[in-house]
């Protein structure tokens, strides 16, 4: 029977206290003893603790003796908090019947609060609204409860008010879960269908799939089948999280647990896949499965050329844990051998960069991120181009399409003007606005992805004193007047500095980049010309002056022709040097593309 089971998750905007609330629930139910308790117990990576963001989903089973005298099994599925991991969030929500919506009493409703809430409502979950951080001096619990109440259409008094840090009223949440969240349906007799909502790689047991059994019953001796990848497996073990992994013999419908598959990579066991029995497979998989598609691309190069093999091994190891990371080898004339990697978004890219540097102790250089363009060639062939250096000759191109996003910005109404100015400057198109609460406005725009991947979020935060929050979803590919901006140093194109820009921005961006590079490229023994070229013509140029030896120092007066002869000789030497000399481009130059200030 499944009457005593409750499956729920916690959804919230980044830094609204989700992991702290999970800690308190684990402590209250005795799942973790006070002696073993650490802050953010479910966030196992140092990075997660530092950035205050859950990166990997995790699950834990708790037992709670309710006021009605019954003992309940509560399965908490902790979801990633950042918009880049939206697909994992959607799968985790599908594994639950209820969601605790946590809103910060000082900040109120934010963009990802709404984005995650709409996803939870789409998944048909029962919402338990909670206001956290009521102990802070700047808390506005009554005001925020009004906002949340009107958003969900519930009485503000039904919104629970807690302080996860101090443990105030947290027991009320456990009672609300038992009373309000429905039990999963009892379907032990149906064909087995279990949803994989996350997975991680274990060097002893292979890939560990986190599953929620929707229908049927799984025994540790069954031969199982993945419906999307068509692979069969005999589990190494099946078990539950309490919160450490504990093997069990069977998992019934409604239960949450794990299967140690023995697979060697996460690619064989993808999030969202359906597990069934090989002997009696289910007729169709659970809905909603797709392979997450990278949105942002960047080159990764080792600073020391000798580290190339180590970098490849470290990327392969990261890929074992993170199936959404993709990479392939590429070569750059300026940077040598490296890899072109695809990421779900900028935050995902930042996490991978930090992990490479920390976990594998490598010095790496990331080139400026770019997005994937669709190029329609003469002859109707469509190419996917994710590196500006690969853009074909303009004479062979019919049109270039770029990805556009729907973005949703929630901000106090005081910053309406600066946000409008920022978005329209970046080619954004205003769609609509709503007021989810008094003094807060939700602005919806359409904007090209290439305009938001570099420093859009930083500008948004600085213009709104940190109050605005952002959420984005892919919209479509659109045709626009796009062209390649190339940088030539000493007449040679530097592929790692190339960018694809809009026709109207090419001149300004080229000029700004040349001005920066002129100061960053060290002086040589000969003049170095730095040029920007776009649309088949040079649009900007600057010279890095040569360092000169004073050849006239030994001439004390005398005939002018003697001096002229020495200067001519020096001039010829410089000319010869320029023909054979190569220019070393420092790392700062590749980062200059990222710091082209619009202001």
**Tell me, what's the shape?**
elongated
Strand order of the largest sheet: 11-10-16-7-8-15-12-13
The portion of residues forming beta strands comes to: 25-35%
Count of extended strands = 32
Largest sheet: 8 strands, antiparallel
Category by helix and strand content: alpha+beta
Poorly predicted regions: 40-57
Strand and helix map with partners:
Layout: E1 5-12, H1 18-28, H2 46-51, E2 58-65, E3 71-78, H3 86-94, E4 98-104, H4 111-122, E5 126-132, H5 141-152, E6 160-161, H6 170-180, E7 193-202, E8 206-215, E9 218-219, E10 224-226, E11 232-233, E12 237-241, E13 245-248, E14 250-251, E15 256-260, E16 274-277, E17 296-302, H7 308-321, E18 326-332, E19 336-343, H8 346-359, E20 364-366, E21 370-371, E22 373-377, E23 382-385, E24 397-412, H9 416-425, E25 429-437, E26 440-448, H10 449-452, H11 456-463, E27 469-480, E28 482-489, E29 492-493, E30 499-502, H12 506-520, E31 528-534, E32 537-544, H13 560-580, H14 587-592
Parallel strand pairs: 1-3, 1-4, 4-5, 5-6
Antiparallel strand pairs: 2-3, 7-8, 7-16, 8-15, 9-14, 10-11, 10-16, 12-13, 12-15, 17-19, 17-20, 17-21, 18-19, 22-23, 22-24, 24-26, 24-27, 25-26, 28-29, 28-30, 28-31, 31-32
């Amino acid at each position: 029977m499944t009457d005593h089971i409750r499956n729920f998750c916690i959804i919230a905007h980044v830094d609204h206290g989700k992991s702290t609330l999970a800690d308190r629930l684990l402590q209250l139910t005795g799942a973790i003893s006070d002696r073993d308790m650490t802050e953010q117990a479910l966030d196992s990576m140092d990075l997660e603790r530092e950035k205050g963001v859950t990166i990997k989903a995790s699950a834990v089973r708790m037992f709670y003796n309710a006021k009605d005298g019954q003992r309940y099994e509560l399965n908490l599925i902790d979801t990633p908090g950042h918009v880049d991991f939206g697909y994992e969030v959607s799968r985790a929500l599908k594994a639950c019947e209820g969601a605790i919506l946590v809103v910060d009493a000082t900040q109120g409703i934010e963009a990802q609060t709404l984005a995650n809430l709409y996803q939870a409502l789409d998944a048909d979950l029962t919402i338990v609204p909670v206001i956290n951080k009521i102990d802070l001096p700047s808390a506005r619990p009554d005001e925020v409860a009004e906002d949340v109440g009107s958003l969900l259409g519930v009485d503000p008094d039904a919104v629970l008010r807690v302080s996860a840090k101090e443990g105030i009223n947290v027991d009320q949440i456990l009672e609300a879960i038992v009373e309000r969240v429905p039990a999963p349906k009892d379907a032990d007799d149906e064909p087995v269908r279990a949803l994989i909502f996350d997975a991680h790689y274990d060097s002893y047991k292979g890939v560990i799939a986190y599953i929620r059994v929707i229908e049927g019953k799984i025994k540790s001796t069954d031969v199982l089948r993945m419906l999307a990848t068509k692979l069969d497996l005999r589990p190494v073990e099946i078990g539950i999280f309490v919160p450490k992994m504990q093997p069990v013999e069977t998992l019934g419908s409604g239960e949450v647990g794990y299967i140690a598959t023995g697979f060697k990579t996460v690619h064989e066991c993808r999030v969202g896949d359906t597990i069934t029995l090989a002997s009696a497979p289910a007729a169709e998989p659970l809905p909603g499965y797709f392979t997450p598609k990278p949105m942002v691309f960047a080159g990764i190069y080792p600073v020391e050329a000798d580290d190339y093999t180590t970098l490849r091994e470290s990327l392969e190891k990261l890929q074992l844990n993170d199936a959404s990371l993709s990479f392939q080898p590429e070569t750059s004339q300026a940077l040598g051998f490296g890899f072109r990697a695809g990421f779900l978004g900028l935050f995902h890219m930042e996490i991978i960069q930090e992990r490479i540097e920390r976990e594998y102790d490598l010095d790496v250089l990331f080139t400026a991120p770019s997005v994937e363009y669709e190029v329609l060639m003469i002859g109707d062939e469509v190419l996917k181009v994710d590196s500006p250096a690969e853009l074909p000759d303009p004479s062979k191109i019919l049109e270039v399409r770029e990805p556009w996003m729907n973005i949703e910005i929630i901000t106090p109404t005081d910053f309406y003007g600066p946000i409008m100015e920022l978005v329209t400057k970046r080619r954004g198109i205003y769609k609509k606005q709503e007021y989810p609460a008094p003094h807060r406005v939700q602005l919806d725009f359409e904007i090209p992805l290439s305009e938001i991947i570099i420093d859009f979020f930083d500008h948004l935060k600085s213009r709104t004193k940190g109050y605005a929050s952002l959420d984005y979803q892919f919209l479509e590919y659109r045709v626009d007047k796009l062209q390649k901006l190339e940088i030539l140093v000493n007449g040679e194109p530097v592929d790692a500095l190339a960018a694809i820009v809009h026709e109207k921005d090419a001149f300004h961006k080229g000029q700004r980049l040349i001005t920066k590079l002129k100061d960053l490229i060290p002086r040589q023994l000969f003049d170095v010309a730095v040029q920007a070229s776009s649309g088949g013509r040079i649009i900007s140029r600057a010279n890095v002056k040569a360092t000169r030896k004073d050849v006239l120092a030994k001439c004390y007066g005398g005939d002018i022709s003697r001096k002229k002869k020495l200067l001519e000789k020096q001039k010829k030497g410089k000319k010869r040097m320029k023909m054979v000399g190569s220019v070393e481009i420092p790392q700062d130059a590749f980062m200059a593309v990222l710091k082209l200030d619009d202001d």
